[in-house]
Structure formats: C-alpha cells, structure tokens
Amino acid sequence: MKTTLNLLIAILLLSSSAMAQKFITKNGNISFFSSTPMEDIEAHNNQVNSALDVETGDFVFKVLIKSFKFEKALMQEHFNENYMESDKFPNATFQGKVANLSDVDFTKNGTYNAQIKGQLTIHGVTQDIEETGTFTVSKDGIAGNSKFNVKVADYNIDIPKTVINNIAESIEVTVDVDLKPLK
Length: 183
What we know:
The protein is mainly beta. It has one domain: Lipocalin (Beta Barrel), CATH 2.40.128. It is about 15% helix and about 50% strand. It contains 2 helices and 9 strands, in the order H-E-E-E-E-H-E-E-E-E-E. The protein has helices at about 1-15, 75-85; strands at about 20-35, 40-55, 60-65, 70, 90-100, 110-120, 125-140, 140-150, 170-180. Strands 1-2-3-5-6-7-8-9 form an 8-stranded antiparallel β-barrel. It is elongated and about 50 Å long. The model is unreliable at about 15-20 (pLDDT under 50).
C-alpha cells in the first residue's frame, strides 16, 4: 500500500510538464475529535503528505497513523495497538478529485467551496466518500480545509465493550493543509 501511494503521488506530480500546476505539502494537519458523555478524545497529526494537481483536480493524502499525538500517552498506546493496529495498517490514505473543479479558480486569490470525491482507506478498508471543504488561493499557495465525520464501524475498527461508551460511533475529522507550488 505504501509503495502504491508513493507511486501514485510521483505519477501525479510528474504527469504533466507544467509543474506550476502541482501543489504539495509534507506537513499538513489532520485532527480528530470523539465526544461522549463519558470522555472527550482528541488527537493531532502534523505529518500529513498531500498533493493537488489544479489542472486535473487529482488530490491525494497519506497519513502515518503512529504520528497522531494524544494528550494522554495511554490513549495513544491504545489507539495504535488496540484500535488502529498501526503495525498492521500503518497509513490512512485518500485518493480522489475535486469534483467541482470548474467552480474553483486556482489562478485567482479567494476562497472557494470545493466538493471532494474519492476513496478513503483506513484500517485496511476502503470506502467511497464525498465531502465538502474550501480552498483558499493566495500568492503563497493553496490552503485546503475540511471537516467531516467518519463512522468507526465503516472501517472495521473494533471497540472493546469495556470502553464502548468512551468512544463516539462517529468521529469528527478536521483537515488543514497549506499546499505550496512544486518547484
């Protein structure tokens, strides 16, 4: 899977001669939040790789699961060992497109609503998703932002009965990436 995604990113980045059409980051941010009456759980990951081809709308992400940081070390350990099985499924990936590409003017500064469609793979399970977000275009690059929910059960993540009331069935995911032109 790692090799496949790296190959996909390489093809995306090298697929056309107009390199100014490609934007990347290696330090994007993804966080998640789970809220239940028993406990709130939050984690952040600032080692997110992402690439966007503004000509084709191709958009990819790769997230190292072990890079999520929690307030409590024990939560992080349980997350990696018991729920996400990070040694077996080290990455989460997204491969998709900006579905409303004609509505986003990547050549003009401003904030644009975006519809993103593609395949999200978490815990070895791939699901088709369609989410909304924004792209903010500036002289410095493109900022991409989105907030959406992921159902734990959709990705075969087992929550032990002893802690089922501590973890929400649907987890809020926030994505923030600052993409810079590929030079």
